[in-house]
Structures are given as C-alpha cells and as structure tokens.
C-alpha cells in the first residue's frame, strides 16, 4: 500500500488537495473518480530516510477533534447543511491529514452516507463512543446538541488525563537527575578519590569500601548494565502490547500506592462520564456499557464492563452487575441503584463523574505538593551520604599530618 498526493476538482468546481492510500497510481485515480472528483494531478508521497512519509508528524490530535466538534456545533446551529459544513471545515483544517479526512467524510455524505457512517470509516480519529453518540443525535434530530456534548466530554477527558500525566513529569525529571548525578559521581569522582585513599596506606572504613566497590563495579560493567537495561526495556514494551502483559501492567498500576488511586479515579470518572453522556442522548445502558468498555483504555476496567454487559443481557440490573467487581466502589454502585429506582441514571452518573474528576484534581495537587520536597530531600541525602563516605576518610587523612 502506497500513499499518493493528489489535486482534483470537486462537483462545485473547487480545487481539492490531499493524500490517498492505494496499491498503485491507477487504483488511486479510480478511487478519486468514484468520489466524483476530476483528477488533475497524482504522485506518490516522497519517503523520509526512516521509510515513512515526510508528513510523519502530521496527525490529528484530541484537541483537533474537540475544536472540530465545537465548529460543527456552531455550523449546525446556523442551519448549515452537513455536506457544506464538512466542506468548510476541510478547507480550514489545521493539517493536511485532517483536511483529507474531512474531505473524505464530505464525499461520503454527498454519496448518501449518514454522518455517523462516514465518521466510522476513520476509527483512528473518531472512537466508537463518538460515532455512536453522533448516530444517536441523528436518530433524535439533535445533532448540534450531540456535538456540543462530545466537545465538552472530550475536553473534560483530555484535561483530567493530561493533569495526571503532567503530575508525573516532575518526579520523573527529579529521579532522572538523581540517577544521572549519582552515576557521574560513581564513575568519575569516586574512582579518583579512591586512588588517593588507597595510596595513603590508612585503614578505610567499611562504608567507604562499600561505595568504592560499587564504583568499581559500575566502571567495569556499566556497558553490560546498560545493555541489560535496554533489552529489559524492549522486552517489557513488547510484553505490554500482549493481552496478558496489558492486563498485568494494568493490575500493577492500579495497586501502586497513591498513583494507583489516581488512576482508579480517572477510569471511574471516564466510565461515569461516558455512560451519563450516552444515556442522556438516548443510547440504551447495555449498549453504553459495551461502547464504554472499548474506550475506557484500561484492560482491567474493560473486562469489568464486558462482564457487566453480559450480566445485564442475562437480566441483572446494572448496579447488581457492577456490584460483583471490587474495582467499582460501593458508593458508585449505591448511587447507580438509586438512579435505577428513580429513573434518573444519567443525572446520577453525571454527578459521580464530577465527583471523581474533583477527587482526581485534589489527589494530583496533593501528590505534586508532597513529591517536590520529598524528591529534593532524597536527592540531597543521597549525594550527601555518597560524599560523606569518601570525604570523611580524606579529612581523617589530612588530620593525621
């Protein structure tokens, strides 16, 4: 499969540019003509030295989808037709890739496809949750409200996920700095000081001998250690991509102190938010569970939701189906039971989503406030102990003269 750049005229006489995947240039031209385009130029995309296209970094981000949803909401509220809306958005797209995808969606709509069906042909950009929400909006005749819901949902989901990720960047930086400083001292500074102490002929304390021994080991085996760490990292990455590995990493992540609780609240917030948004849009709870399991992005909770969906199919209420799983807190199960009894499940889940978002924000803020002084103190103590183990014998040596 190759990628081709093309320039063509659409049925309105407007020039369109983009890329298309095809096995050959003839197939690419045929595919473009089927879309009702008059092709004026087709050429293969040049490859970079890494084998990919030059537009390797030209991808559609979550922020693009949020902005796109808000723009569609505005256009639909202004009574602009779906075809015209996607044509306008394609012309003003931020990246060529997004422009190409929006143009393809517009062409599919022009050929008689529904908006949800056109979106479903681009699963890397529009998730199953997104497509089903749009399908529900088409059935209810409230597409503008649906896209507004989607923009708000994606915004909330992105914000809470990024906040948790950004909170881990600082401690990772401090830890990396600590390891780098200790490594440089053990391989560059300590050996020179060790030579000085060894040449003095004095007895060396046991803690100093331990530091010198560790330094000697690193000097001789640093390359081997780096190779082992590299191979281990590659193995873990490949193992994590397997189903068994993903489940194991998921369990381990959720059981970590502090961080595990944050991840749990993120997934619970996502589940409640997804279900709430879909229920308020008219999607049945069973279908909502199935869709949410595909977009929760955690194998543990994906299994929980799939098992719950199976139980709901067998006739159990949602609250009872989720009660079987320890990953779902009792408060959430109790609130969902109230929602079932009152027929107000969507509002109850929306309340739970807000609660867990607030919990995540508070937990992340607390963790950041605590990590900064702890990591700085740990770094200072580690370096101080290392220096003291060598400088104290040097001081004693100097005092003997």
Automatic annotation (TrEMBL):
GO CC annotation terms, alphabetical: plasma membrane
Keywords in alphabetical order: Cell inner membrane, Cell membrane, Membrane, Transmembrane, Transmembrane helix
Source organism, top-level taxon: Bacteria
Keyword Membrane listed: yes
Membrane topology: Multi-pass membrane protein
Repressor among keywords: no
Stretches assigned to the Type II secretion system protein GspF domain: 69-191, 272-393
Membrane-spanning segments: 168-190, 210-237, 374-395
InterPro entries registered for this protein in UniProt: GspF/PilC, T2SS_GspF_dom, T2SS_GspF_sf
Location in or out of the cell: Cell inner membrane
Family: Belongs to the GSP F family.
Name of the protein described by the UniProt record: Type II secretion system protein GspF domain-containing protein
Organism: Candidatus Kaiserbacteria bacterium RIFCSPHIGHO2_02_FULL_55_25
């Amino acid at each position: 499969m190759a990628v081709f750049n093309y320039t063509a005229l659409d049925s309105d006489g407007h020039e369109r540019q983009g890329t298309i995947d095809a096995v050959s240039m003839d197939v690419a031209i045929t595919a473009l003509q089927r879309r009702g385009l008059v092709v004026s130029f087709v050429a293969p995309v040049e490859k970079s030295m890494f084998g990919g296209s030059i537009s390797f970094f030209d991808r559609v981000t979550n922020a693009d989808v949020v902005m796109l949803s808000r723009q569609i909401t505005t256009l639909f509220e202004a009574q602009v037709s779906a075809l015209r809306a996607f044509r306008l958005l394609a012309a003003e797209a931020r990246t060529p890739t997004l422009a190409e995808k929006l143009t393809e969606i517009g062409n599919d709509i022009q050929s008689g496809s529904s908006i949800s069906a056109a979106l479903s042909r681009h699963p890397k950009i529009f998730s199953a949750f997104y497509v089903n929400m749009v399908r529900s909006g088409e059935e209810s005749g409230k597409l503008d409200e649906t896209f507004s819901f989607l923009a708000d949902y994606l915004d909330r989901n992105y914000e809470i996920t990024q906040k948790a990720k950004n909170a881990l960047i600082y401690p990772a930086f401090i830890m990396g700095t600590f390891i780098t400083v200790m490594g440089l001292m053990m391989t560059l500074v300590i050996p020179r000081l060790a030579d000085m102490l060894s040449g003095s002929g004095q007895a060396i304390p046991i803690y100093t001998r331990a530091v010198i021994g560790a330094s000697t080991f690193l000097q001789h085996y640093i390359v081997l250690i780096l190779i082992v760490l590299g191979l281990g990292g590659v193995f873990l990455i490949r193992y994590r991509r397997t189903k068994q590995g993903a489940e194991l990493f998921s369990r381990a992540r959720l059981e970590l102190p502090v961080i595990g609780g944050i991840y749990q609240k993120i997934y619970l917030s996502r589940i409640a938010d997804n279900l709430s948004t879909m229920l308020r849009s008219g999607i049945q709870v069973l279908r909502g569970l199935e869709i949410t399991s595909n977009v929760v992005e955690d194998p543990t909770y994906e299994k929980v939701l799939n098992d719950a969906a199976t139980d709901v199919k067998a006739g159990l209420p949602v609250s009872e189906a989720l009660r079987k799983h320890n990953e779902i807190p009792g408060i959430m199960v109790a609130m969902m039971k109230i929602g079932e009894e009152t027929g107000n499940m969507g509002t109850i889940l929306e309340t739970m989503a807000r609660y867990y978002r607030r919990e995540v924000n508070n937990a992340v803020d607390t963790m950041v406030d605590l990590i900064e002084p702890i990591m700085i103190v740990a770094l200072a103590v580690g370096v101080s102990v290392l220096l003291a183990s060598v400088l104290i014998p040097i001081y004693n040596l100097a005092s003997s003269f």
